[in-house]
Design a protein that fits this description.
Number of helices: 19
Structural class: mainly alpha
Order of helices and strands: HHHEHHHHHHHHHEHHHHHHH
Strand order of the largest sheet: 1-2
Number of strands: 2
Shape: globular
Strand content: under 5%
């Protein structure tokens, strides 16, 4: 008698739970609503980095609004390339790309020393690091191990928490006018934070997915009622944002390029993990030649799209992990839904009203949301570290990396007597700790 018992593989199990598979073309209504849910999950994450960077660099309203618009526009182009797969560029999955949080700290450091032109030069030049890694992926994974990745992701979260708490207190402007840390600022930030936590605990999946958007909307509304939002600053909500390549010029600062290049190294490894998870959820293979080609193409796109973002006066793009969860929730893995998401992002980027409204968002409102988001980043890094065997070598690597990375963040003046190049490279705790982690992990040898 023939045995028909068949044990499903992980890919087959995932595929059987999907409503629409990778190559399926959902009806317009289904695709539209699936895309809208993805958009709700990523919108705030895309616009937050340019808002934080603009605040730290004290940029005017017009510049901030344009940077927000270009972040959305660049994300639209990047998402289309990832989903479509143009030649060898792209993974061909429902992979959504957006502005990366990981680069905020080194970008602010670069901007404070060289301005926007230095930032965009470093964004473009540094992207070749990730594009290069996509071609030699199997070798780099021996250097950038999960332990190193976990350390750097944790440092990214810890470094950004400082940025988030400054926003909670009212931002750099409040530091100058003496209102920093006022009860009103901290109250607004706490309201946003508690609102996000409240809706995130909801059993309704739509409320849970929209928790950050709802929290920001509540904070924005209360801020407006308290007179903290001045719409009179906006001369016109109309018009059309025409993407203008190299609008703010381009300059190449070696220190800024090295600083961003280190983060591009880690981003490549994160992208590999995200593509693996996405492939599994979508019922696609996670081993073999097809998967390696898909992963290499996705990482190549990650770097290429960041280069395009720099040309368009935006910041590095990376694959958003949260959208993998959205595929599981909706049961829709069709990459054609990505085309709808890309169109939404492009349209939002072309109309300046979107950027203007969000550019007026008070710092405490943004701080309440980002404090939680950045804490989540640090927690994700700790989880990666915890998944590895923590032997004596791992403890030493962690101790060295966190000591040096956090020392630079807490006491930046420690580098005040160093040459400009050294100071520029190690000014960010992420870069200092990341380089230490890579070197220490490679050099330390212990026989148990």
């Amino acid at each position: 008698m023939e045995n028909n018992n068949h044990v499903k593989t992980a890919e087959e199990a995932a595929s059987s739970e999907l409503i629409y598979g990778l190559e399926d073309r959902p009806p317009f209504r289904d695709a539209f609503f699936a895309a809208l849910q993805h958009l709700l999950a990523i919108f705030v994450a895309i616009i937050t980095p340019p808002l934080i960077i603009a605040g730290a660099l004290k940029l005017d309203l017009a510049t901030t609004s344009f940077l927000v618009s270009m972040a959305l526009f660049a994300s639209g182009i990047s998402t289309f390339i990832q989903c479509k797969r143009v030649g060898p560029v792209g993974c061909g999955l429902l992979c959504i790309q957006g502005t990366s949080f990981s680069f905020i700290s080194p970008i602010i450091s670069a901007g404070l020393t060289g301005g926007l032109s230095s930032i965009f030069g470093a964004v473009m030049a540094g992207s070749f690091v990730e594009m290069g890694i996509s071609r030699v992926l199997k070798y780099t994974r021996r250097i950038i191990t999960p332990l190193v990745s976990g350390i750097v992701v944790t440092l990214i979260g810890m470094s950004l928490i400082k940025v988030g708490i400054i926003s909670c207190g009212g931002g750099f402007g409040a530091m100058e006018n003496g209102t920093f840390g006022s009860l009103q600022n901290l109250g607004i930030a706490a309201l946003v934070l508690v609102s996000i936590l409240f809706f995130n605990r909801s059993s309704n999946r739509y409320l849970r997915m929209s928790s950050i958007v709802i929290g920001l909307a509540i904070g924005y509304a209360v801020s407006f009622a308290l007179g903290m939002v001045d719409f009179s600053k906006i001369e016109s909500y109309g018009g059309f944002n025409v993407p203008l390549p190299f609008k703010y010029g381009v300059s190449f600062d070696p220190a800024a390029i090295i600083g961003l290049g280190i983060v591009y190294l880690i981003t490549a490894i994160e992208a590999y993990g995200d593509i693996t998870a996405n492939s599994l959820i979508s019922g696609e293979p996670v081993t073999g030649e097809k998967f390696v080609k898909r992963a290499s193409g996705g990482i190549l796109a990650d770097g290429f799209n960041s280069f395009v973002a720099g040309v368009l006066n935006s910041f590095p793009n990376s694959i958003f992990a949260q959208n993998n969860g959205m595929i599981q929730l909706t049961g829709v893995a069709s990459r054609y839904v990505g085309y709808f998401i890309a169109v939404f992002l492009l349209l939002l980027g072309l109309f300046p009203a979107v950027g203007l409204v969000f550019s007026l968002m008070p710092d405490p409102v943004l701080g309440g949301a980002t404090l939680l988001m950045f804490g989540t980043v640090a927690a994700a890094g700790i989880r990666i570290i915890a998944s590895q065997p923590l032997n004596r070598k791992a403890i030493l690597v962690m101790a060295m990396s966190f000591s040096i990375g956090l020392s630079v963040e807490m006491v930046p003046d420690i580098l005040s007597k160093m040459p400009d190049l050294i100071r520029g490279i190690f000014a960010s705790g992420i870069t200092a700790g990341g380089i230490t982690a890579i070197v220490a992990n490679f050099l330390i040898r212990i026989r148990e």
